[in-house]
């Protein structure tokens, strides 16, 4: 038994009740899948009865929306001031890549659910979630467009955006928190692989000179 429980304190310490439920639900949804996880599993994992769970989360669908939307909002909040900054496009690209990889590693269960269960969200919440995904993708698009305007990048084509997203996002399938390479090192590797294909011949030759 944990010390907090032995002392009669709530076992839900760090982050509060709802945060604990969100973390546990994200772990279950990421390992079992959203549709394969029932309220009975959530009750057992959290130690709450159904009534208490509904009090804190509203519904299983609302819980999924909060998990899938939370870190998109975080990434958007990080990305907007970055694209509005005076930094060169390549530096914006590198910094945002690092932000994304750090979020994936630090919140792997939540980000797994975010990427994998996006179409499990239904109704008006689905529209809201897809809009968040669009806002997030637009940050990458804005970075590439700024590079084209600078004469540093050759394209801001939507296909290039999809490739960048795929390389970063699918890391959730293989990445291991605490692994040999840090999120920043993985981001650097991705950038060294991606940026030469985005740079204009002039910018590449200037680097090699």
UniProtKB/TrEMBL annotation:
Keywords of this entry: DNA-binding, Repressor, Transcription, Transcription regulation
The UniProt record lists the keyword Cell cycle: no
InterPro entries: Homeodomain-like_sf (IPR009057), HTH-type_TetR-like_transc_reg (IPR050109), HTH_TetR (IPR001647), KstR2_TetR_C (IPR041490), Tet_transcr_reg_TetR-rel_C_sf (IPR036271)
PROSITE patterns given in the database record: HTH_TETR_2
DNA-binding region: 38-57
Pfam families per UniProt: TetR_C_24, TetR_N
Top-level taxonomic group: Bacteria
HTH tetR-type domain mapped to chain residues: 15-75
Record-linked PANTHER family: HTH-TYPE TRANSCRIPTIONAL REGULATOR RUTR, HTH-TYPE TRANSCRIPTIONAL REPRESSOR KSTR2
Protein name as it appears in the record: TetR family transcriptional regulator
